[in-house]
Structure formats: structure tokens, C-alpha cells
Amino acid sequence: MTPETSPSPLTAARQRDVNARRTRVAQALDAMRTEGIAITISSVAARAKVHRSFIHRHLDLRADVYAAADQPSAAATATTTTRQSLEADNLNLRATVRRQTQHISDLEARLSELLGEQAYSRTGLGAPHNHAAHEEQNQALRDEIQELQARLQDQEEELGAAREANRQLMGQLNKPAASGG
Fold first, then answer.
1. d(CA 47, CA 109)
2. How many other C-beta atoms are found inside a 10 Å radius of the C-beta of residue 92?
3. Residues 87 and 61 both lie in one domain
4. Does any domain span residue 2?
5. Intervals of the chain under pLDDT 50
6. Which helix (H) or strand (E) holds 32?
7. Rg of the Cα trace of the chain?
8. Are residues 93 and 135 in the same domain?
9. What is the DSSP annotation of 115-174?
10. What is the reported pTM?
11. What is the domain extent for residue 123?
């Protein structure tokens, strides 16, 4: 038996095929960038006439596609939307909805309070004598709850940071032990 110095013809043919497909993917990606076409793995695979799994199996090609998708194209105009702009819009809309939900809740509480006062005055019953004192106590307790929640959130963030630092330190301590054994 003689040792093989060159790859078998089947291996060489396979390598040429892979190289040709990689070249087609790179060319398709460049063309899509210059044309300003939306870049996704599926669109690049279709343009290069390869299967999506080919791009997923080659991490460098997949990274190139993701990087190209994140960058605005050369033909992009001010009205072109990118994935990043859509994500930013989505975050802004979620924050707006959160603020509006809180505002609606506050308005509902205020409306309920006004309707209650109106019902008391129309029926002639009036508010209980200690109603004002209870309202002050309720407000004080609400303020205390909000303060305690803020403190709890701060402590949770500090705990999370401490846990992450602990993980990193444990990782550093375990590295020499793993490499020495």
C-alpha cells in the first residue's frame, strides 16, 4: 500500500463543487447589496441557487449574510427600512403602549374616584368621616410600596451583577485546574 499524497478524485470533485457554491453565494450577496434587495438567508440561497442549509452549515457564509442584512445597502434611500430600524420602531411602540396603558389605568382610577364622590354627594350620604384619613393612609402605603419595589429592583440588579462576577471568577479559577489535569 502506498500512502496517498493527493485527495481522491471524488474528494477533489466535492471540494470544487463546494468552492463553486461558495463563490455563487458571495456573488449573490454582493449583487443583492448593490441592488438594495432585502437580504435574508433564504433570499441569498435562492439567488445563488443553493439550499439554505448550505449557508447554515458554513458559519462564515452565515455570518456574512447576517452582517450584510444589518448594514444598509449602497442603493438604500432614506425611506428604506432595515431590520435595525424595524426593531427600534418596535421597541418604541412597546414603550408607548406601556405608557398609554399606565395612563389609562390612572384615568380609570381617577374616574372611579370622581364617580364615587358624585354618588356620595347626590345620595346625600356624604363621605364617611374618616374617609380623608383613609385616603391619606392609602396614598402613604402606595408610596411606600413603590419605594420598596424600587429598592427590591435595585437589589435584584446588584445580585445579578454579583452572580455574573462570581461566575466569571469561578470560570477563571477553574481554567488552570482544568488545563493542569
1. 57
2. 10
3. no
4. no
5. 1
6. helix 9-35
7. 32
8. no
9. HHHHHHHHHT----TTHHHHHHHHHHHHHHHHHHHHHHHHHHHHHHHHHHHHHHHHHHHH
10. 0.40
11. 81-127
